[in-house]
Amino acid sequence: MYPVSDRFLATLVEAHQPAAEVDLFLTDGRVETLDVIGGSVTVDRSQQCRRQCTVTIPDPALIPRTPTDQLSVYGARLRVSRGVQAGAYRELVPVGVFRLDSVEGDIDEGPVTLSGKSLECVVADDKFTTPYRATGTAVGAITALIQRSIPDASVSSTAADTAIGARTWDIEADPWAAVTELATAIGAECYADADGGFVIAELPDPLAVTPAWTVSVGDGGSYISAARGMSSDGVYNAVLARGENTEAGSAPVSALVVDGDSGSPTYWSGPFGRRPMFYSSSTLLTTGQCTAAATLKLRAAQAPNATANLVSMANPALEPGDVLRVVYEDGTAELHQVQSFPVDLVGGDMAIQTISAKEGA
Q1: Which of 127, 306, 311, 351 stands the most exposed, by the fewest C-beta atoms within 10 Å?
Q2: Residue 240 pLDDT class (50, 70, 90 cuts)
Q3: Which string of DSSP letters, residue by residue, matches 1-42?
């Protein structure tokens, strides 16, 4: 979760007004703070561009009408923040930095809607025009790919770096797919965060981290409702990761990671049966790298003990991968990991989709 004050979290469940701020960074160097009357930010870790936004403003003057207007808008960026206000107290958190992709609306009276995607799209759209070869370490190769498209991009990593096998991508290949493959080689994922920087990190284990937020019933609680269920569609309980790099002349390596929890509904040796999935990449040089890649893939592909679509009071500081402690009306509690959610810029509740849950938390 994005760092916020204790007062911010307390205010979320008290009487307050939603607060939003949107800054438009034009290509000619001007910065405009927009008058926001509507809009939302969608955050979803399953999407290539993890964040997407729509912002509604009343003034049609921003609609480009001349070549000069178009030059200042094409390539512009939006910085969107959302928070709370209660009396004189106001606290905002960033919910994304976006490339401005479209501006449309009533040219005479407005309103005007601005749409954008987070900065992964800048890398993804910069397709290779010549074969591209990555070598060295995974973090170094990821950083080079991102800064190839965004030279001043900030790239930070909390994942353990390691050497990778040489990998060449063809003309027209997607550089962000290359970033994703390299991150998987070290058991991590890469994404643009709420500040517009790029992060390389492992998906947290729900049982190994302190919950970022508690969603509970009752006075002072943020819980509104939840739908729970289970599904085995597209579910796997093992991943076999393999690496063979003929370009580097390295020997084939592999690792099989299975759900070894006998209390899990997808236990490898249980009634769910054996349902493996497979992943291969020439960037994998060691058994340890294969194990890390397979572990990451399994965490996303394995059926959880329970899933939930939660409706809570809006918390714009949440991040995908955050672990939530959910306390239901009957007193039972679960740990849930955030997959996606929308942030309404002017109000409303928040529907949170989760990717896993552990009962009895």
Answers
A1: 127
A2: very high
A3: -----HHHHHHHTSS-EEEEEEEEE-TTS-EEEE---EEEEE
